[in-house]
Design goal:
alpha/beta, Rossmann fold, 6-stranded mixed sheet, binds adenosine-5'-triphosphate, transport, ATP binding, ATP-binding, ATP-binding cassette domain-containing protein
Length: about 375
């Protein structure tokens, strides 16, 4: 655990970057520091490894005051990842990753072996080992940065806007990788970002700072979104926080309708009977592996020769699906909103259709989620 007690930082010249911070950063969890530009996030992060010395108060790691530690040894025992990775341009990928092992006197062989292990861990192909940083994409550079920070197996990892220089798609995949790594490694991660969506996605706890370096709220993401302490936090979270909160409620409890599924080789007449008897105006046609093909409306079936197989009709695109076991209500809502049939298609991990969810059933689940705020369980998606 990292404990800040009455910590302030006044830079020479008088700027108070952090003002009387009391914060307990839990061990083996990801804590995210968010807030508008200049509110003291980076300063807070850098005070942990003494790259910036605090001017008031105490900072302790597992009960030990960091001032009692040698700053160089302290820094080496804490992983540090920054925006645009901060790699050494004249060192190959494998040597960049092995920087700290080399510094602390690990044998060349052991350091390079560790480097290869870490490349695999962060999802970098082995053939990239001999490349130089400028020969990598932004996302690959960030992965090297993470691998380098993990090389000495530090219990604490500080990450300062590590993913903000890459495009949104790469950023999302890096966030997913970080979540996967963290499930495996259980480091104490302190992560700085401007982006509240990123914070909610990866944080177990979120500290929102306000201008002037003051802590506004420290909370679990779902609780933060449900109950911002004041107007500043509410505005910072954005006015779509209700929808964002849905990402904490699993889709697995949604009622899935199987009666709306029809095999592609089923004749139109029988499908029409199914649609009418089950009160399902939209049917989802599936192939022999039960993967979705598209929607068909009862009116279309009524105007088709009864013997024509459903799969030969003009099916309406089904849009995107949600994975029942891992996605959240937010993903299911999104799938339903974008569906021409106003229904979301729920699949298993292999893409097999498990059922469809109507917007009315979704509304009921969302209503329940709203009523039981704090009881939500985190979905993985
Ligand atoms: N070395 C320094 N000397 C003087 N003032 C500084 C120094 N570093 C930061 N500051 C000031 O301290 C305040 C907090 O800066 P800090 O970088 O911690 O904020 P931040 O929340 O990380 O900002 P951003 O999101 O823009 O990176 C700002 O007013 C900044 O100008």
């Amino acid at each position: 655990m990292i404990t800040f007690t009455g910590v302030s930082k006044r830079y020479p010249g008088g700027t108070v970057a952090v003002d009387q911070l009391d914060l307990e950063v839990p061990a083996a969890r990801t804590t995210v520091l968010v807030g508008p530009s200049g509110c003291g996030k980076t300063t807070t992060l850098r005070m942990i490894n003494r790259m910036v010395e605090h001017t008031e108060g105490h900072i302790a790691i597992d009960g030990q005051d960091i001032r009692a530690r040698d700053p160089v040894a302290l820094r080496r025992s804490i992983g540090y990842v920054i925006q645009q990775a901060g790699l050494f341009p004249h060192r190959t990928v494998q040597h960049n990753i092995a920087t700290v092992p080399f510094l602390v006197g690990t044998t060349r062989r052991a350091a390079l072996r560790r480097s290869a292990e870490l490349m695999e861990l962060v999802g970098l192909a082995p053939e990239l080992a001999q490349r130089y940083p400028q020969q990598l994409s932004g996302g690959q550079q960030q992965r090297v940065g993470v691998a380098r920070a993990l090389a000495a197996d530090p219990p604490i990892l500080l990450m300062d806007e590590p993913f903000s220089a890459v495009d949104p798609v790469v950023r999302k995949s890096l966030q997913e990788e970080l979540l996967r790594l963290q499930r495996e490694l259980r480091k104490t991660i302190v992560f700085v970002t401007h982006d509240i969506d990123e914070a909610v996605r990866i944080g177990d706890a979120i500290a929102v700072f306000r201008p002037g370096g003051r802590l506004a709220q420290f909370d679990h993401p779902e609780h933060l979104l449900a109950e911002p302490v004041d107007e500043f936090v509410e505005a910072f979270l954005g006015y779509d926080r209700g929808v964002r909160r849905l990402s904490f409620f699993p889709a697995s409890e949604l009622q899935l309708r199987r009666a709306a599924i029809v095999d592609a080789d089923h004749p139109a007449g029988a499908a029409l009977g199914q649609a009418r008897s089950k009160d399902e105006p939209w049917l989802l046609a599936v192939d022999s592996r039960e993967h979705p093909l598209g929607w068909i409306h009862a009116d279309t079936l009524a105007n088709t020769a009864a013997t024509t197989p459903v799969g030969e009709l003009d099916l309406v695109r089904y849009g995107h699906v949600f994975t029942v076991s891992t996605d959240s209500l937010r993903a299911a809502l999104d799938a339903a909103m974008l569906s021409p049939a106003s229904r979301a298609v729920g699949v298993d991990r292999t893409g097999r259709v498990l059922g469809v969810v109507r917007q009315t059933d979704l509304s009921a689940a969302i209503w329940d989620a709203g009523g039981n705020g704090a009881a939500g369980t985190r979905a993985h998606g």
